Amino acid sequence: MANLKQLAQSLGLSITTVSRALDGYADVSATTRERVREAADKVGYRPNASARRLRKQRAELVAVTLPSDPGHIGPPHFLDMLSGCAEHLAAAGLNLVIAPVPRGESELDICRRFVDGRRVDAMLLVRTKRKDERVEFLQSRGIPFVTNGRTESLAPHPYIDGDGFAGFRAATLRFHAAGHRRIGHIAGPQEYYFAHDRCRGWRAAMEECGLATDLCAEGAPLEQGGYLAALELLRQPSRPTALVCATDEMAIGALRALREVDGGNQISIVGHDDLPMGAFTSPPLSTMRMTGEHLGASFASLLLRAIAGETAEELQELHAIEFVDRDSHRRPLRAA
Amino acid sequence: MANLKQLAQSLGLSITTVSRALDGYADVSATTRERVREAADKVGYRPNASARRLRKQRAELVAVTLPSDPGHIGPPHFLDMLSGCAEHLAAAGLNLVIAPVPRGESELDICRRFVDGRRVDAMLLVRTKRKDERVEFLQSRGIPFVTNGRTESLAPHPYIDGDGFAGFRAATLRFHAAGHRRIGHIAGPQEYYFAHDRCRGWRAAMEECGLATDLCAEGAPLEQGGYLAALELLRQPSRPTALVCATDEMAIGALRALREVDGGNQISIVGHDDLPMGAFTSPPLSTMRMTGEHLGASFASLLLRAIAGETAEELQELHAIEFVDRDSHRRPLRAA
DNA sequence: AACATTCTCCAAAACGTTTTGGGAGTCAAG
DNA sequence: CTTGACTCCCAAAACGTTTTGGAGAATGTT
C-alpha cells in the first residue's frame, strides 16, 4: 500500500536499510530485519513494479502472444501448459502473461510493442509458421525466446515441438497394415509448420507404400475446415477408406461429413491433439498427442536457459507422438 | 532502440523538447517536431515503458485473470471478446493482458500481485462466483474493474452478464409447451453465479408449470461432468424426456450418455454458449447464447467509464438470451 | 522607446526503487 | 593507544521518462 519512503520514516530507518532488510541482505541486523518485515507485512507493502523494473533494468515479465488468427490453439492443453510454465517461471521471479492480439493488429505488432518498449525479458511463441516473421523479428532484436513449433528459419532457435512427421507417417502406415489402400489426408494450412510437417509424414508413408498421394484436401484448422475438406474427398470417384486429419477439430468436422454421406460407420479416421472433446464424439475419436509429462516446466526451463545465454542448438526438444486409440480408427474395412 | 537522452544529444536538443515533440505539444515548432519525429523513426525509438509508467503513475495496463480451475471458459467467444476489448482499450492507450494462474496460486493471488504492485490500472474478471473473493478484494482496494458475470456481493459493481434465469426459464417453458413433462436440468457447480442463475431459471419454470424439480443433477462444467450427470438422471425410475444443460460442454457430455443408454434419439436436449463444436455433434446441438454484437467493445467501454469514475450502478449490462435452434431440442416426444 | 505577447526551447524536479561506496561505532589484538 | 576487522546503517546516484515553471528571442502594440 505504502511506499518505501513512508515505511522507512515510520520505522525511523533509512530507505536503504528497509529495502535491504526486505531483500534479506546480511548487512542489516536480524532484529532490524524482523522489525522491518513485520511492519511491511502490516501495511501490506509491495514494491512498485515500475520503479523496480526501471532500476533493475529487467521487466521480470515474459509474454506469449495469443494467436487469434484462423484456428484456435487447443485450449485445454495450451492452458495447462501455460499454468505449469507460469509456475516455474514464478519460481525464478518471472511473471507470465498472455497478450491477445487486438483486432487490426498483427502478432508481430504485439511483439514489437512488448520488446521495443522493454516490457518483457523474453517471449514465448506458439503456432509457428514455416516462415515466421515473429521469429525473424525476435532474432533481429536478440531477445531470448522459445517457440512451440519449429520453423524453416535459417538461424536456429529454441523450440519444443512434436514430431508430426513421424506421427503421421506411423498413423498412415498403421492404416496400411490394417488393409487400407485409399488413405486420405485432411491437411491444415500449409504455411503452418505443424500442418506441413504432418502432411509430409502422410505423404512419405503413402509413397513408401507405393500409393498415390492425391487424396489430400486442405482446410482451415477448425471443425468447419475439416468438414469441407472431408466432403471434398468423399466426392472423389474412388473414396478414401481411412482419413488422417491434421487436428482433432478438423477430424470432428470430418466426422460430421461422414455421418451425412455414409452414416458415419464406414470410414476410419484419426486426429491429432487429444482434445477432451474427442472422447465424446460419435464414434469416440482416435487421436495422437505429443509425449512428455510436464510440458510447461520444459518450456520454462528452456526459456530460463535461453535468458541465461545458452545457444539455440542446446535448446531444441523434439517429442515423439503417441497414439490415443479410441474407436474411430477401426471402422470395419469393406471390400472396395 | 535508443534513449531519449541519446536521441536529444544526436539532435542537439534538450530531452524536454524531444519528449514534447514526440507527444505533439504545440510549444515545439513544426519544423523541430518533424525533425525529431524523423530521427525517432529512424532509430526506432520507443519510450521505456517502466520509466513512463513510473513517472505517469499509471500502468497503462489492464489484466484479466485466466480461470484455470475446473472448467475452461468457452475459448472461441472468450478470445474473440478479448481481441475486441483489446482493440478498444488500445485506442485509449491501454494494453490488455491475460494472466494465467500458476499452479499452486489462486486467482486472488494474481489479483493481489497485479494490483498491489501497481502493475495495472484496472482489471477484468471472468467466471464470477456468487461469493467472489476477487471482487471483494478489488472493491477493498478501490481499483476499477468489470466482471463478466454477476455476483451476490452487497456492494454493486460493474458487470456484463447474460440473463441466464430468463433464458433457462424460457427454454424450459418451451419444452413444456412442446408436451414435455419430465424436464431435467444438468447443472454446473452452484458456487458459480451463472450456474446458479441458470438452475434457478429452470426451477422457476418447473414450479410455474406445477412440475417436480427433482430431475436435477450437478457436475463439473465439462463434458465429463455433463456425461456423469446425465447418466445419473437416466438411472431414475422415471426418466426425463428433455434436458436443459448449463453449458454446451456439459450438453455434449450428456449427448454421449444418451447415445450409450438409448441410442441417442429419444431425449431432447439444449445447451448454452453456442460453442462452434455444437454444430458438429450428433445430433447437432441446440443451444442458447447471450445477445449483443460487440461484446469486447462493451467491456472496454464499461472499463474506461469505470476508470473515469462513473458509479457501479450505471455500469451494469444484462443481456437477453436467444435460442440457437439446431436439431437436438426436437427429438420426437414419445408417450411415457 | 517601452511594454506586452507569442513562440521556442530548456533545466530541474519528480516518480520509487536498487545499488554503490562509504561512515560510525564496537571490539579484540598488537 | 593504535590498528584492523566487523557490524550495522545510510546518503546519494542511477534507471528513463514526463511535467513544471520559467528564460530568451522575436513580434506586435502603445
Automatic annotation (TrEMBL), chains A, B:
Keyword annotations of the record: DNA-binding, Transcription, Transcription regulation
Span of domain HTH lacI-type: 2-56
Keyword field contains Magnesium: no
PROSITE patterns tied to this protein: HTH_LACI_2
Name of a matching Pfam family: LacI
Protein name (record): LacI family transcriptional regulator
Superkingdom per UniProt: Bacteria
Originating species: Rhizobium laguerreae
